[in-house]
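BUG: 3D viewer hangs when loading the predicted structure for this chain

Environment: internal workstation, default settings.
Expected: structure renders.
Actual: progress bar stalls at 90%.

Input used:
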Amino acid sequence: MIRDRVAAVRERIARAAARAGRDRANVTLVAVGKNHPASALREAFGAGVRDFGENRVQEAEFKARELGDLGDAIRWHVIGHLQSNKARKILAFTHMLHSLDDMDLAHRLNRIAGDSNVVLKALVQVDLAGETTKFGLPPSDLQNALETLRGLANLEIRGLMILPPYEEDPERLRPLFRRLRELRDQALRSGLMRAGELSMGMSHDLEIAVEEGATFVRVGTAIFGERD
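Structure tokens produced before the viewer hung:
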């Protein structure tokens, strides 16, 4: 079942990329395993998925241990809001943090990563919808934040991320995805980021996100089914 769902999601990504004249290989599928057992992630791994996202650090740690036999072949992405007291924990297993949303947290991560002599890859979460219930930097603060982040030697800012509101009609999200791409392009032109990744798009809206330039799509329900 999961194998078939992975294949269906990949086909959706490929079709959207083709419509936009993009190379499907430039879009990474991140399977989001929140509230699903490690055995389900193992099944997705068997279907060729290599990148897995978790919202909660404790759940990610547990699954990283459960799937430790897969070694470096599996890449873990922290995609939920990161509390500062969990900052040290993610360095042991995280390939990339998608949800850097606070400058105090950035300085803490940089200091901890420096103590461990590692460089943490991160994406800056941007709040384009102005939702009070969600995290992310307002776009008006983004340039100053990126200028500061550029000076943090143990954080490598790879791009931007958005968690948009749910819309029954995903087409309504296109302006947000397009705006995030424009902000990315501005940052690249200004030399404020080392890469131009865009983490945007989930199960119900991934086609729109891919058409607008997503390089990571975070897909849970379409692969693992509804959460418990």
